[in-house]
Design a protein that fits this description.
This protein is of the alpha+beta class. The protein has 4 helices and 12 strands. Helix 2 packs antiparallel against helix 3. The chain is globular.
């Protein structure tokens, strides 16, 4: 009798394990399918620019970057100063900040462009700055803003996107692979936003083949 009970309980345990494994496999299937679908963007009758954007995203960029680029065809919108921060009342200009790229010229296969933002007024005041540098390209004598949508912006990870510069120099990075349209040979400038009014500061550089 004891042996029969033992066999019965072992059989129940084995059956439970099979059912649990089956549930796990079943629950994982839709998620995998969903993730696969999310990574592929399709659109009916896309124009040339949207076709290029779709191809760019489907090459492995964050899916949210597609919607960001689609909603802001003229490039990243200017950031706004956070309402919860106190204001310094001090105007930001090239007199109290130096903004520049690490080099004046970059190869087209460069992955990261490092920009430095240095406070030079000698004060202990902390200034707000936006963590993501924007990118603009020179076309027909005019600066055109591109979309720079790195992971932190595409997912909302790490908000609020800002910091404070006291005595220090801070580095801001352009992730070249996350700039749309892609950065080919030409003249560019990085844009940093600093202070109460998110004043833009510029750092020009060139990309060569």
């Amino acid at each position: 009798m004891y042996i029969m009970k033992k066999i019965f309980f072992l059989s129940l345990l084995l059956l439970s394990d099979i059912l649990l494994t089956s549930c796990i496999m079943t629950n994982n299937k839709p998620e995998t399918t969903f993730q696969t679908q999310e990574q592929t963007v399709q659109s009916e009758n896309p124009n040339d620019e949207e076709s290029a954007l779709i191809e760019w995203v489907n090459q492995g960029h964050n899916i949210i970057a597609y919607y960001y680029c689609r909603d802001y065809p003229n490039g990243n919108p200017d950031p706004e100063y956070p309402s919860y921060l106190p204001q310094t009342g001090i105007k930001v200009s090239s007199d109290n900040f130096i903004f520049k790229t690490e080099y004046e010229q970059y190869k087209s296969d460069t992955d990261i462009i490092v920009c430095s933002l240095e406070k030079t007024d000698g004060s202990a005041i902390y200034y707000y700055y936006y963590l993501i540098p924007y990118v603009e390209t020179l076309e027909n004598g005019e600066w055109k803003r591109l979309v720079h949508a790195p992971y932190i912006l595409g997912t909302g990870s790490g908000w609020p996107l800002g910091g404070s510069a006291g005595y220090s120099t801070v580095n801001l990075e352009i992730d070249v692979s996350e700039v749309f349209p892609s950065m080919s040979a030409g003249k560019y400038r990085a844009v940093a936003f600093v202070g109460d009014e998110c004043t833009p500061l510029y750092a020009e550089f060139e990309v060569v083949d």
